[in-house]
Amino acid sequence: MSFLDKFRQGAEKAAIQATAFARDGSSKLASESRGFVQGFSLPGESEKAAKILESFLADPNRPQSALNAIPKAVLQRARGLAVFQVLKAGFVFSGKAGSGIVIARLPDGSWSAPSCIATGGLGWGLQIGADITDFVVVLNSEDAVKAFSLGGNVTVGGNVAATAGPIGTGGSVQASLAHPAPMFSYSKSKGLFAGVSLEGTVLIERKDTNRDFYGSPIPARDILGGRVPPPEIASKLYEIIEAAEGLDESGLPQEAYIPTATGEHIAVGSGEGYQVHDSTVFDAEGH
């Protein structure tokens, strides 16, 4: 049995468990856990990623939404984006499984075709229930993009830093980009979850899924390097990015903050922000 088959079986079991936990308390989580399993193909992942990313970015028709979105400046200088969803379920001990895509910005400013990624892990601690979390990881450096290009693992708990990214507008956002961490992480969580867990996260290339869509075993470095034409199924994703990058921020208050795990907001520039909350090692062949 291939890794992808094992991963799919594990995710399906997690989705069933999450649905059972959520049945009495959250029909929304139950619906999303079923959709999670249905999105394993690259077209499904691209559609899911577009919806996730849209929820993190400002709506061009509502400029005020930029005050609670990934900053335009962060998006404009991004070298890549990883967008994925993680389903977590458990009682004391927990398991998680997730999937999504990564894209890279090409030298001409356009975006590469998507490469599928997967994540999984075990956790422990006071944890009861189920939770679905959406993630957007902004890759701020070519080294970060390279890690996803080499077909290896990206594992939380190493020596290349990822920090919570800023949200909002203004000069403090620009200042945070002077010497940014290799990656900015953003997350939105919904559903039923109680307590704190300690767990490791591994992101890997889903080679089988890429092969099934592109028709041959094309490595991630070729997909993210622009050697594969961007597919039509990812057009919505590109349109959302382009619209957010073109947002008119003139006249908006200059307010930016960093969200914390407890739901508090730390103002950017307060001296408390940009502490490394995750460290990440890129464990990839040849890196």
Automatic annotation (TrEMBL):
Residues 121-244 form the Ysc84 actin-binding domain. This is DUF500-domain-containing protein. It comes from the Eukaryota. GO terms for molecular function: actin filament binding; phosphatidylinositol binding. The lineage of its organism: Eukaryota, Fungi, Dikarya, Basidiomycota, Agaricomycotina. GO terms for biological process: actin cortical patch localization; actin filament bundle assembly. CDD domains: SYLF_SH3YL1_like. It comes from Sistotremastrum niveocremeum HHB9708. One of its GO terms (cellular component) is actin cortical patch.
